């Protein structure tokens, strides 16, 4: 039996912890590896201190998830903390899941029920990694203005004095 990689997205929401517990109870087999993946958005200021703080906060959050995994017998856990460019967290997560070679990505979908107490139900599902596809996004083309006259891009510097001297000597 081959070891599988199960990726769980680490976020500061209860649904993320619930997805981890569901994966531990329903998906985990002996020898499987649980990858705790946290992706944090990049910040505009590009301050190294702020980036380090976000990375550290994500790692500490992942460590709290690892403590949950340690309560289960013989779990192999790895932690991945990565930065997403701009608002591309979903694209970055999908790319990392594909790069990790995951066979399962458990998710929790909150459903609003029409009960008297109007509580939220949790529907557990598993994303099939084989069908996970992120389209290649090409960078936008930058339109360059084509100059109608090719000689307009050639400029001449001052005339060389040396050139004039050579003509007079011949």
Explain what this protein looks like in three dimensions:
InterPro entries: Rossmann-like_a/b/a_fold, UspA. It comes from Acer yangbiense. It holds the Pfam family Usp. With 170 residues, this protein is α/β, with parallel strands linked by helices. The chain has a domain of 96 residues: HUPs (Rossmann fold, 3-Layer(aba) Sandwich). The chain is 34% helix and 23% strand. The protein has 4 helices and 5 strands, in the order βαβαβαββα. The strands form 2 sheets. The protein has a 3-stranded parallel β-sheet, sandwiched between helices. A two-stranded antiparallel ribbon has the order 4-5. A hairpin with a 7-residue loop joins β4 and β5. The mean pLDDT is 76.
Q: What portion of residues is helical?
A: 25-40%
User: What is the string of helix and strand elements?
Assistant: EHEHEHEEH
The CATH topology of the domain at 5-100: Rossmann fold
N-C termini distance: 91 Å
C-alpha geometry:
globular
Biggest sheet overview:
3 strands, parallel
Indicate the structural class. alpha/beta
CATH class division of the domain at 5-100 = Alpha Beta
Would you count the extended β strands for me?
A: 5
Pfam family, one: Usp
Domain UspA: 4-103
Protein name: UspA domain-containing protein
InterPro entries: Rossmann-like_a/b/a_fold, UspA
